[in-house]
């Protein structure tokens, strides 16, 4: 492959000469749809899809808070089966598929009456029980540190797939 020189061709054409990839409607690389016109390595569609499209190492949820115990309304999610309020500002998230281990990392944010609230691990649990391969226990707190019910919560997690 030769790179553009003196404006005789553009970078887009040069890259197309290197690798062309056909995608299916779902964004996955079609089997046998990776072509190379150079000696560069050929991408395996299965590997590309696993890493960049089917990556199950990411989980996230946006849910509405409640003022009474019970199932929360999930507005959007990936990999979260349910969210349940178990007490003032306490929520249990259940993942659709178990993690490969319980060392995933997570973060969250919450909103109450237009102001930010905090999301943290459930203080009634210790490090070894606040998150398991299937469940995450969180609580929402005010700036003063007390547990509060909130309007909306966002949580995302990244870790090793099972």
Question: Would you kindly provide a written description of the structure presented here, covering whatever features stand out?
Answer:
- The chain is mostly beta strands and 162 residues long.
- The chain folds into two domains: 11-52, no CATH class; 58-158.
- Helices cover 10% and strands 43% of the residues.
- Strands 4-6-7-10-9-8-11-3-5 form a nine-stranded antiparallel beta sheet, with no helix packed on it. It has a two-stranded antiparallel ribbon with strand order 1-2.
- It is globular and about 55 Å long.
List the helices and strands and how they pair.
Layout lengths: L10 H8 E5 L5 E8 L8 H8 L5 E7 L5 E2 L2 E5 L1 E8 L2 E6 L9 E8 L2 E7 L13 E7 L10 E7 L4
Antiparallel strand pairs: 1-2, 3-5, 3-11, 4-6, 6-7, 7-10, 8-9, 8-11, 9-10
For the secondary structure, the number of strands is: 11
β-strand percent reads 35-45%
Mean pLDDT: 79
Name the poorly predicted regions. 13-19
Main sheet, how many strands, which sense, barrel?
9 strands, antiparallel
Shape: globular
How many structural domains?
2
The ordered string of helix (H) and strand (E) elements is HEEHEEEEEEEEE
Gap between N and C termini? 40 Å
Strand line-up across the major sheet: 4-6-7-10-9-8-11-3-5
So how many helices? 2
Radius of gyration equals 22 Å
How would you classify the helix and strand content by structural class?
A: mainly beta
- The helix content is under 10%
In short:
The protein is mostly beta strands and 162 residues long.
Keywords:
162 residues, mainly beta, 2 domains, nine-stranded antiparallel beta sheet, two-stranded antiparallel sheet, 2 helices, 11 strands, globular
């Amino acid at each position: 492959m030769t790179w553009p020189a003196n404006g005789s061709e553009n970078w887009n054409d040069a890259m197309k000469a290197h690798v062309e990839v056909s995608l299916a409607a779902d964004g996955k690389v079609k089997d046998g749809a990776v072509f190379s016109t150079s000696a560069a390595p050929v991408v395996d569609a299965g590997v590309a899809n696993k890493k960049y499209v089917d990556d199950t190492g990411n989980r996230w949820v946006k849910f509405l808070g409640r003022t009474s115990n019970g199932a929360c309304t999930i507005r959007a999610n990936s990999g979260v089966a349910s969210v349940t309020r178990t007490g003032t500002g306490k929520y249990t998230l259940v993942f659709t598929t178990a993690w490969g281990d319980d060392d995933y990392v997570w973060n969250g944010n919450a909103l109450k009456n237009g102001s930010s609230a905090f999301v943290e691990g459930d203080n009634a649990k210790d490090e070894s029980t606040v998150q398991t391969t299937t469940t995450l226990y969180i609580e929402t707190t005010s700036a003063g540190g007390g547990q509060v019910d909130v309007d909306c919560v966002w949580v995302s997690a990244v870790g090793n797939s099972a």
